[in-house]
Design brief:
mainly beta; OB fold (Dihydrolipoamide Acetyltransferase, E2P); Single_hybrid_motif; 4-stranded antiparallel beta sheet; biotin; elongated; 9-stranded antiparallel beta sheet; Biotin_lipoyl; Biotin/lipoyl-binding protein; 167 residues; 2 domains; Biotin_BS
């Protein structure tokens, strides 16, 4: 069972359940004809109406889909059973807890720093590049925060679990 919220709507989210007989939306059977036109575009017939749907962006980590339906943009946020359980337990914010620092995932050489103290970063923003085993690894922010201190500089050698950036 999933719940879906469209465009951060304040009205109740939709419940979606997949059964052997097809999907149920809010407990009612959902019948449609779906034809893939290309990798990201689909033609849909539902209740004698025609729709063209284009997948704009899929963020599997955030469980969000941005799509265009007949030229109108929609963002759909999905929650699975685990997300719903965390919400019921009052722990829905646990996954987006405030971060304190970024540590080196492996020993290596700092070849680039993309941020400065005072910068505000979002989850997924590139903060530095760590070269290890002859490969450059882009280190991204694991959450939102403001950079308090940068403990390394370009050219520094670091060890695993060494603090690189403090928030």
């Amino acid at each position: 069972m999933f719940t879906a919220t469209v465009n951060d709507a304040t009205e109740a989210p939709f419940s979606i359940q997949f059964t052997a007989n097809g999907p149920l939306v809010n407990g009612e059977p959902f019948t449609w004809d779906l034809v893939r036109l290309n990798d990201n575009t689909f033609h849909i017939l539902h209740q004698d109406r025609s729709y063209t749907a284009e997948l704009i962006e899929l963020d599997s980590e955030a469980k969000a889909v941005k799509l265009s339906l007949n030229g109108h943009l929609y963002t759909v946020q999905l929650k699975d059973r685990f997300d719903q359980l965390l919400e019921q337990m009052g722990m829905s914010g646990a996954a987006s807890a405030k971060i304190n620092d970024i540590k080196a995932p492996m020993p290596g050489l700092i070849v680039g720093v993309s941020v400065q103290p005072g910068d505000v970063v979002k989850k997924g923003d590139a903060v530095l590049i760590l070269e290890a085993m002859k490969m450059e690894n882009l280190i991204k922010s694991p959450g939102e925060g403001t950079i308090r201190a940068i403990r390394v500089a370009k050219g520094d050698r670091v060890e695993k679990n060494q603090v690189l950036i403090e928030f």
